[in-house]
Fold:
Amino acid sequence: MKHYPYQIDSLESYKEAYKQSLDNPAAFWGDIARNFSWMHSWKNVLDWNFEEPSVKWFDGAKLNITVNCLDRHLEEHASDIALIFDANDPEEASRHISYQELYDEVNRMALVMKARGIKKGDRVCIYMGMIPELAIAVLACARIGAIHSVIFGGFSARSVADRINDAQAKAVITCDGAYRGAKQIELKSIIDDALEQCLSVQSVFVVNRTNTPVSMIKDRDYWWDEEMLNIPLGSFCEPEPMNAEDPLFILYTSGSTGKPKGVVHSCGGYMVYATYSFVNVFQYQLGEVHFCTADIGWITGHSYIVYGPLCAGATSLMFEGIPTWPNASRFWEICEKHRVNILYTAPTAIRSLMGLGDEFVESFSLQSLRVLGSVGEPINEEAWQWFHDKVGKGRCPIVDTWWQTETGGIMISNIAGITPQKPAFATLPLPGIFPELVNENGNVIEGNEVSGNLVISHPWPATIRTTWGDHERCKQTYFSAYPGKYFTGDGALRDKDGNYRITGRVDDVLNVSGHRIGTAEVENAINMHQGVVESAVVGYPHDLKGQGIYAYVIYQGKHNESQDQLRSDILSTVIRIIGPIAKPDKIQFVQGLPKTRSGKIMRRILRKIAERDASNLGDTSTLLDPSVVDSIRQGAL
Ligand code: PRX
Structure:
């Protein structure tokens, strides 16, 4: 018997599901949603218009996602393992947390938060390493209806403060420190710095992970363990009845303007879509171990470490460390040790492991692996082949999953072992997803063997609902370029069989090691450095990271330092303002930037120079001063 009634199990059933979703999307998703636990049913499955935009799935229904992640599994699966934790230090014992244990801990933490006055609708910022308490914190927020905003542990105090202030978060959950490979990150002290600029935060809960001495501020900072001790084991926290359209979380992501935006997902639709896509794309079978290597600070971790797997009653593996520490066998050791069945990772990790040599993977049989997955950036054919041959030993299908923070779940992907795979192609849309390619004039490009901008013409349950505090921005960013359609910001091509290949961003957003970074954000950070007059940032192809960051900088400060020293000072500024992930790979000092008469930087030219493709720069006649191009070209790095 299929454990999930909505699980696709043949090419025919994929085609049938796709057809049904096309004929009547509301009926299709309504049938799927009935397999979840609701406190009250919906009035309408779907109300929408993409003009405002307004998207409502299952409106009027009441639910709590944690009932679906936890309570629902207790009757038959209480002792099944919900989370496996593998620590940064391979010598540290791993932890196996059953559904019953996870349920108990989430209930206690939810009560801890309630006791400190946190209630439905309050925002809670979570800034932690990849330890089980992070998943518990996320679920405890959802249990009481507080809106979580998880911030990746690599962001700087200033980035954290901006996000806390934007959401007006009332509480923060953090750790004293986090282990990451050979490094230790002092999370609590970063939070202390951030909170100097944040007036909304009333309480901070601190997990002791690294035994790092930290300063604890009276009546603001509380140790997680001490707080939990106040709540007896076995305590029950009533799950907050949430409207399907109430926000579940905010997740900040970069766009083409300087300020990251808070993508908002709702409770009902997100739950249905994260679970549906998890169960189908990976063809999850009950009892299997699913290892998603992302950090919960990104959408991949939200949907495919926490919510999707737990709603499906799966065993989800959380890894605290990095793939290359203490050596490049780390992933493979984990796969063997925990008999991992599904490994879901990013091309950047695959490329870096590939570059370190086959010997690290070859000594592992990896027999338990059944499905491999890739996410976050285009996977080049060489990396795909290596993943397939060396990791999957030629027998595991690879799902190349295209999606975004805004889409909440996987949108275009092959279905493991069921729909055909094609290296470097995300292939076909999931049921309920209607992609189109459009040209610059907004006309839909019909037929196959074509390319254009990728849009989605109809809502799916995990559609972005708004950008926190600024609905107009959501409309402008996603729903205005092609009225009536959701614009992804990606370019794509469609082959003769209708398979999609994502070619990359068509806006000013970079994808560096699978992380989204806005060029304007990096420019703003560089411009904060003393003596920098102006800068322009573009991406260029990078063997390991997919894209590298190339910065052109006009510096007019005092030149008593060497250029190398100046570069390293600018890097420190970027790290301090955004975090290490936004560090430029190359900084070229220039006298001027190529600008049009109206003062617009011609990035096309800068991109070509950064890509070392400066032989044909196209039309430069509209430039204010064409001679700057030659001098930039001569100084190119
Ligand atoms: O450009 C696409 C790329 O990552 C962007 C979304 O980034 P983010 O919101 O951080 O979410 C990443 C994880 C879902 C997309 O606009 N992208 C994501 N997956 C793929 C991809 N590009 C090519 N192939 C993919 N499989």
